[in-house]
Specification:
The complex is a heterodimer of chains A (250) and B (325).
Chain A (H helix, E strand, L loop, with lengths): L1 H16 L1 H26 L12 H25 L1 H9 L1 H6 L5 H28 L9 H26 L5 H21 L5 H10 L1 H9 L5 H25 L3
Chain B lengths: L4 E12 L2 E12 L3 E5 L6 H8 L7 E6 L2 E2 L4 H6 L1 E4 L11 H11 L4 H14 L15 H13 L5 E5 L7 H17 L1 E5 L3 H7 L2 E6 L2 E7 H5 L5 E7 L5 H5 L4 E6 L4 E6 L3 H13 L4 E6 L3 H10 L20
Parallel strand pairs in B: 3-8, 3-9, 6-7, 7-8
Antiparallel strand pairs in B: 1-2, 1-4, 4-5, 9-10, 11-13, 11-14, 12-13
């Protein structure tokens, strides 16, 4: 347990030693601030007020913002996870780790924890934006909470997928672009279903990362959705462990 | 010399695809022994070292470190290993102290002892003034020292160094050699290198691996007993005719290689050499150079790794390994 913690803190420290982590913070805040402003000004526009008569501020502004936050997360997680194993391999530090008295499971969990901590910091910054509305209006805090939980779960599964892809290659750029490709496909998978049969469409929609997130955004806290994300994360963590374990045999 | 065996490598083989990188290699290292690991490029040195450290697993055979089987109890075995790979495994963005702290923790040193361990290994590797510097700003030689510092930070029973002196200046090389001999007092050291004098100055035993097979496993002093004929170059200002020289007792063959230079082959006992110098003085040949062409280790190395090698464990000599890394 101690070892996992050491590896996680090391991962976090390494992230913050490079400008990448800070730039990602800045870019995400900047982009979300623009969207926040756009959504808010649209909502406040008296000419369009009749259009949103059925929506509260939470359902329109907060959910809109978190939806975009999900997409931005999809764009930036590959850059956070790309270095986890690829860089270790490129610099040869993987030999240090593999010759140290730690198990591969501890190594993978430590790295995962480090990445998750970084993403949580990012998410807490994102959460501050809708919370700032509390100064002027009332919010449905439970719906906001459910949305944030959705975002956390989304981030965890993104990170697990990114970690796995990073364990496959020694080139960070390759890891980043492949992770992005996989995440994007998983995200829009439900669209492909619209042309096929009903069953086919249902399966694809269910497997899509997006669908479960929308439930949570709407304030529907269904344990099936939570379990879905936990399963995806576990699956890819286990795959990473297998992959690194088998590396000794390659 | 009957100290406990710290590393034992037992009939280990390793394939990369169909390519056999290490073929049925067996040896053991005792406490307090410094083992020189020699071989041409791609002979399987690094692969063997990676297997001892548990980074790669062996396809066949057994590796035990400090009594623990690397396959069955890797954690206990790895606790006793300090490893410096060919390229030091450094995190460029960290400073030396942070890096060493992290590696100490990876090796399971408790929080209370970390500071002491870091200070100690820094002091041993001459890094006391560089603790706060970023690793990426250090010169190659200092990076190499940091690499060695991480390998000895947990005072492991076994230290494995893959070309530790590459990229160092002559002074640093001397320091590192001293450090290695010092380590050899209470640890076992495996040292891979291409520099033969380095082996001669620090190692107790020499292993030569060629095309994945172990071709030599001998104590160094035994190798350096001059028991075979080797050429000596001599230079005389006033050389006599070739025949006169050839008649000196003990000289088996002689070649003239320049106006003043001769290559003589003689039984390497000191008497023959004494006779040559004596005659040179008596007959005014004015001898001014007498250089052994090659030293015995170099000779052995070249002989063993120039193709027509005989495997050490000559169970199936016709099945010479064709693999390399």
């Amino acid at each position: 347990m101690n070892t996992i913690f050491h590896i996680a803190t090391h991962e976090l420290r390494r992230l913050f030693k490079s400008p990448l982590a800070w730039i990602l913070f800045a870019v995400v805040q900047f982009l979300l601030a623009i969207f926040f402003l756009l959504i808010l000004s649209k909502y406040m526009d008296p000419a369009a007020a009749s259009l949103f008569a059925n929506y509260g501020v939470t359902a329109f502004v907060v959910v809109g913002l978190l939806q975009i936050a999900g997409i931005i997360l999809l764009l930036i997680t590959p850059f956070v996870t790309m270095n986890t194993f690829s860089e270790e391999r490129q610099s040869g530090c993987i030999k240090l780790l593999l010759s140290s008295p730690i198990s591969v499971t501890e190594l993978v969990l430590g790295k995962y924890l480090g990445v998750i901590c970084y993403l949580f910091l990012l998410l807490s910054l994102i959460a501050l934006m809708p919370l700032s509305l509390l100064m002027g209006t009332e919010l449905d805090l439970l719906q906001l909470l459910s949305g944030i939980i959705g975002l956390i779960l989304l981030a965890s599964s993104f990170a697990a997928i990114g970690l796995f892809v990073s364990s496959l290659t020694s080139l960070p750029a390759v890891a980043a672009i492949s992770t992005f490709g996989i995440l994007f496909v998983l995200w829009i998978m439900n669209m492909a279903g619209s042309t096929g049969s009903e069953l086919f469409s249902e399966i694809l929609t269910y497997a899509s990362l997006l669908k479960h997130y929308h439930n949570l955004l709407d304030g529907i806290f269904n344990s099936a959705d939570v379990i879905y994300y936990l399963l995806v994360s576990t699956l890819f963590i286990v795959l990473s462990i297998w992959r690194l374990d088998s590396e000794r045999l390659l | 010399m009957n100290k406990e065996i710290l590393i034992s490598v037992d009939h280990v083989s390793r394939y990369f695809g169909d390519n056999c990188a290490v073929n049925d290699v067996s040896f053991s290292v005792r406490r307090g022994e410094v083992l020189g690991f020699l071989g041409p490029n791609g002979a399987g040195k690094s692969t063997t070292m990676l297997m001892i450290c548990g980074v790669l697993s062996a396809n066949a055979g057994q590796i035990t470190v400090a009594g623990y089987d690397m396959f069955e109890s890797p954690k206990a075995a790895k606790k006793n290993i300090g490893f410096l790979p060919e390229h030091p495994p450094l995190y460029q963005d960290l400073n030396v102290d942070e890096y060493l702290c992290y590696t100490a923790r990876l090796r399971g040193i408790t929080k209370a002892e970390i500071k002491k361990a870091v200070e100690y290994s820094k002091q041993r590797c001459g890094l006391t003034d560089t603790g706060k510097r970023l690793i990426k700003n250090l010169s190659k030689g200092f990076q190499q020292r940091v690499g060695i510092a991480q390998a000895i930070i947990h005072s492991p029973a076994v230290v494995i160094l893959d070309e530790p002196t590459s990229g160092l200046d002559p002074n640093q090389i001397l320091e590192i050699r001293e450090l290695i001999s010092e380590l050899g007092n209470d640890h076992s050291v495996i040292l891979s290198t291409h520099i033969l004098p380095e082996v001669q100055s620090v190692c107790d035993r020499v292993l030569i691996i060629h095309q994945g097979k172990l071709v030599l496993d001998e104590p160094l002093d035994k190798l350096q007993q001059d028991d075979h004929i080797r050429p000596i170059k001599i230079a005389l200002r006033q050389p006599p005719p070739l025949e006169v020289l050839g008649e000196i007792e003990g000289i088996t063959n002689i070649e003239q290689i320049g106006n003043h230079h001769f290559k003589i082959y003689c039984q390497p006992d000191i008497k023959t050499l004494n006779r040559i110098t004596k005659m040179s003085v008596e007959s005014d040949w004015e001898i001014y150079e007498m250089i052994p062409e090659r030293d015995s280790l170099e000779e052995t190395f070249v002989q063993l790794t120039r193709g027509e090698s005989q495997p050490l464990s000559n169970e199936n000599p016709d099945e010479a390994g064709e693999g390399s890394e």
